[in-house]
């Protein structure tokens, strides 16, 4: 079998490619990746010489690049390619619309034209928006509130529309906040760990009492594979870790794990515009399919801190050049606030 994985040089995508090549000897992977700032060849360097792995550089919104990557045909497409960072979407929304909506559309057109037997859209719990109480099931209304989550919701809706309209063989997974090795250091956990290693302060938005449900990337990619192989066509599956935590609780573990103190290293700064207070998803449907997360949060977080400690040569180059410009743009205008 030949699977096309898009965005396979990113965080979750590269962990998925590694899982597939490790566990499924009869699957070859073609990785189509645009190599944006978050697509890092170092994430899969160890697999570059694997005969079951091929790389094509290209953008999913470019139909020619998608055609080239599909070649004589593929048995499945798994779409990880996306702009994913909420704070970047607040500064520059356009790239999110292009990749997350138009790119998904281009892939869906290829699925329709070429008769590709499976298409899995990797999505996010953020499409449900702010969830004050309870947990969103897959049939909950979508109420995205950031340019990022609105773009992902657009991709999900196009995907489900292709099932309703053309009977395209699609699946959607909606993962919760993901952490683990190879995550670009703009997101909460890797940003804070790498800042703390460098003895820099960490910027907590607002009161830090926002709640996210954390899932280890290994559990998340196993869930995606499980849904790809066993999910019912046209269905959506939530993949949540079942570890709801406030940002301050996470920060405390990271600060302690890096040998720093809350008093000296935490800065409460101007909140994110439109900041969703809480995400929570009901995962009964994916569990009924036979998947459940395995990695205990305390173990996963400890191992992730250790991974960043031991892989400075991976993340240090990422926190230079353009990243410093981004950091200044994103954080320079945030002022410190009282708790
Ligand atoms: P993030 O990793 O950006 O994921 P998402 O916004 O997609 O959930 O952020 C996780 C939480 O951490 C979110 O509530 C915003 C907060 N956060 C901070 O407080 N400071 C930061 O510098 C970042 C990047 C995030």
Q: What would you note in describing this structure?
A:
The protein has 339 residues and is of the alpha/beta class. The longest helix has 21 residues. Helices cover 41% and strands 17% of the residues. It folds into two domains: 203 residues, NAD(P)-binding Rossmann-like Domain (Rossmann fold), CATH 3.40.50; 87 residues, UDP-galactose 4-epimerase, domain 1 (Alpha-Beta Complex), CATH 3.90.25. The strands form three sheets. Strands 3-2-1-4-5-6-10 form a seven-stranded parallel beta sheet, sandwiched between helices. The protein has a three-stranded mixed beta sheet with strand order 7-9-11. The radius of gyration is 19 Å and the shape is globular. The protein has 13 helices and twelve strands. It binds thymidine-5'-diphosphate. The site of thymidine-5'-diphosphate (TYD) has 13 residues, from helix 6 and strand 8.
Give the SSE map.
Elements: E1 2-6, H1 11-23, E2 28-33, E3 53-57, H2 63-70, E4 76-79, H3 86-91, H4 94-114, E5 119-124, H5 147-166, E6 170-175, E7 177-179, H6 188-197, E8 202-205, E9 211-216, H7 217-230, E10 236-239, E11 244-246, H8 247-257, H9 262-265, E12 266-269, H10 284-288, H11 297-310, H12 312-315, H13 322-331
Parallel strand pairs: 1-2, 1-4, 2-3, 4-5, 5-6, 6-10, 7-9, 8-12
Antiparallel strand pairs: 9-11
Helix pairs in contact: 1-7, 4-5, 6-8
This protein binds thymidine-5'-diphosphate.
């Amino acid at each position: 079998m030949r699977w096309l994985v898009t965005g396979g040089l990113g965080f979750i995508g590269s962990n998925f490619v590694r899982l597939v090549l490790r566990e499924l000897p009869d699957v070859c992977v073609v990785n189509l990746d645009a190599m944006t700032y978050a697509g890092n060849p170092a994430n899969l360097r160890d697999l570059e010489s694997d005969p079951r792995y091929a790389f094509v550089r290209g953008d999913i919104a470019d139909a020619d690049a998608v055609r080239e990557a599909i070649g004589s045909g593929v048995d499945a497409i798994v779409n990880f390619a996306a702009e994913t960072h909420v704070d970047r979407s607040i500064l520059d929304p356009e790239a999110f619309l292009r990749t997350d909506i138009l790119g998904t559309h281009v892939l869906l057109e290829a699925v329709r034209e070429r008769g590709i037997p499976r298409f899995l859209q990797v999505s996010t719990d953020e499409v449900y928006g702010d969830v004050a109480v309870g947990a969103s099931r897959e049939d909950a209304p979508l109420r995205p509130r950031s340019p990022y989550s609105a773009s992902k919701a657009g991709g999900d809706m196009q995907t489900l529309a292709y099932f309703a309209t053309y009977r395209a063989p699609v699946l959607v997974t909606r993962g919760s906040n993901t952490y683990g090795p190879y995550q670009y250091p703009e997101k909460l956990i890797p940003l804070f760990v790498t800042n703390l290693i460098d003895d820099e302060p960490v910027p907590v938005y607002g009161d830090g009492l926002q709640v996210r449900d954390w899932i280890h990337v290994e559990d998340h990619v196993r869930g995606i594979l499980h849904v790809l192989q066993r999910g019912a066509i046209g269905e959506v599956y939530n993949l949540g870790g079942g570890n709801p935590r406030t940002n301050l609780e996470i920060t405390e573990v990271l600060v302690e794990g890096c040998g720093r103190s809350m008093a000296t290293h935490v800065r409460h700064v101007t909140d994110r515009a439109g900041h969703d207070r809480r995400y929570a998803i009901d995962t009964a449907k994916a569990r009924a399919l036979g998947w459940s997360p395995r990695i205990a949060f305390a173990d996963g977080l400890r191992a992730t801190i250790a991974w960043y400690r031991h892989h400075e040569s991976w993340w240090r180059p990422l926190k230079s050049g353009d990243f410093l410009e981004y950091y200044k743009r994103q954080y320079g205008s945030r002022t410190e606030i009282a708790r």
